[in-house]
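W.,

You were right to be curious about this one. When I first looked at the sequence I had no strong expectations either way, so I just let the prediction run and decided to look at it fresh. Below is the sequence, 109 residues in total, followed by the output.
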Amino acid sequence: MEIQQNKSTLEVHPRNEEKIKKIWKTAAILLAITVAEFIMAFTMDRGLFLYFLFIALTIWKARYIMLEFMHLGDEVKPLFYAIIVPLIFLIWLLIALAKEGSDIFLMRW
């Protein structure tokens, strides 16, 4: 790889067009999911289904970001699952704590 340095710019030759296309594809997918969330937020009625969709899309975006930007998509599967499985248990813990907290609040009043 040849590095050419001018007074005003630094360019790396040759440009890897495949990596550039992958970055744009990743940005487009994340933009599409975000736009879908934005449209759902203003067009759908509030309720359990909408909240489930938001949580699912947020987890999907987090997974995609983790695979692409943290480069875990190219790693071995045990490393990937070592990160995803604790995340699932953490989400379960948050749901359980919210449920227990609301039940205790209702019992006190």
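Here's what jumped out at me. The two ends are 70 Å apart (CA to CA). And, maybe more interesting for your project: The chain has a mean pLDDT of 82.

Coffee later to discuss?

I.
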